[in-house]
């Protein structure tokens, strides 16, 4: 039966339906088919129902229902128990907080807990919450490669296995470690349609082909033998290991916050996809390795582009740090909400300082990038703290550390004596390594000051962030999401995915030759888009 709600309204002179607002409202009815009609007054759009009209009309183009739940890979949704192919990536030191992960899980998204940099007791507390508050729902925990802190990586895996963490997001791995391999293999058992079930899922975050290959291949045979010899896996798990890749999902990380190679997504994603296809053809895996996209995704346009390129899922990072659930200070969230597209810089990473690895941080409102680079230059130039010229050392102590470097070393030594005594053993008799630990104190404290909102240290805040934050701020300007106190992580995800589905629908209609009024492509903004009148005018 035809209803007035489904009756097309034509774009004629004086018709109030003319204009991009009406077109947008019609196209945003994502759970209904949309028809583009040509009638007496030009083109019109109608959503849902049986088509009728006030005069003769011709169907020019049509698109089926396309809700956000249809974007990406259905296999990704099934594997992780999700409603939409949307993931919030881990932000270290608990910035991707337990609150954030719980909110994402309850919304049908995949949230990754920022376990990196936290002590085991803090991680365990979060895992207990997940067990009690979101039983049976999908979530992930970050396992970051820690070349200088092997014990922490091992302890994290122990906790993940003890509490049955269903998925690990592996990041910053330069090589595979027995701890990561152990997590994967302990979850293997015979069964299922393909003969092997992998209950411990791994999502590998990568930006280089050589790293991607490590995760697309089965666990290295030597590591499997070593784990078996140590009694950490069973004979059956060792036998099943060659039949599955180390990772179920590969997140291709482009120009992101934190650790990043700053590669453009349109260049990197196709390379990794071709690599995946070649390895899968060679290995003959029963299940397809899924490829996700991350880095620079903070708006519906960017999300739609990633899906259009074939991404099975998308991952956001920077934009979630400004949300209410993020485990950082209100002052940092305000700083992030003011960031523009160019307000970011690279700075030395605390966890890989000696290797010269950099990460992307917010530059606006903080001296951290400049000061961190000064410390790395000192590390490379001088053979230890004692070799630094007196005038330079005095300036560093007064302006950056605000205390004598000797007292910084005392605090650093006390810290590592509790957390990782091996660090002190390796620094004994090596002045440059000792200097690295002192300089890493500033880098580590800078992120802590930002997280706790230390007012006296605001100019030293280290805030991991990328250009997606500036893009997001531009998109939400003038809407309720402009204020960080209104940014709920699940709501942000829903708005991005809903907008991405809208852009996918636009692309389908453009491919059919439909031209839309100016501003339609940039019109989608965060709002409660409850269905209104279904038929509107479309420009010629």
Draw up the topology in text:
Elements (H helix, E strand, L loop, with lengths): L19 H8 L6 E6 L2 E6 L10 E6 L10 H7 L5 E3 L9 H9 L3 E4 L6 H14 L6 E5 L5 H13 L4 E5 L6 H9 L1 E3 L5 E3 L2 E6 L2 H8 L4 H9 L5 H6 L8 E5 L4 E2 L5 H19 L6 E5 L5 H9 L4 E4 L1 H4 L8 H8 L6 E5 L9 E5 L5 H14 L8 H12 L3 H15 L1 H7 L3 H22 L15 H9 L12 H23 L23 E4 L2
Parallel strand pairs: 4-5, 4-14, 5-6, 6-7, 7-10, 10-11, 11-13, 13-14
Antiparallel strand pairs: 1-2, 1-3, 2-17, 8-9, 12-16, 15-16
Properties at a glance:
single chain; 540 residues; alpha/beta; eight-stranded parallel barrel; four-stranded antiparallel beta sheet; 20 helices; globular; disordered N terminus; disordered C terminus
Describe this structure in words.
The protein is of the alpha/beta class and 540 residues long. The chain is 42% helix and 14% strand. It has 20 helices and 17 strands. The strands form four sheets. Strands 4-5-6-7-10-11-13-14 form an eight-stranded parallel β-barrel, surrounded by seven helices. A four-stranded antiparallel β-sheet has the order 3-1-2-17, covered by helices on one side. A three-stranded antiparallel β-sheet has the order 12-16-15. Strand 5 (110-113), helix 4 (120-133) and strand 6 (140-144) form a beta-alpha-beta unit. Helix 6 crosses helix 8 (221-229) and helix 11 crosses helix 20 (489-511). The longest helix is centred in the last third of the chain and has 23 residues, at 489-511. The protein starts with 19 loop residues before the first helix and ends with a strand. 50% of the residues are buried. Residues 1-20 and 528-540 have low confidence and may be disordered.
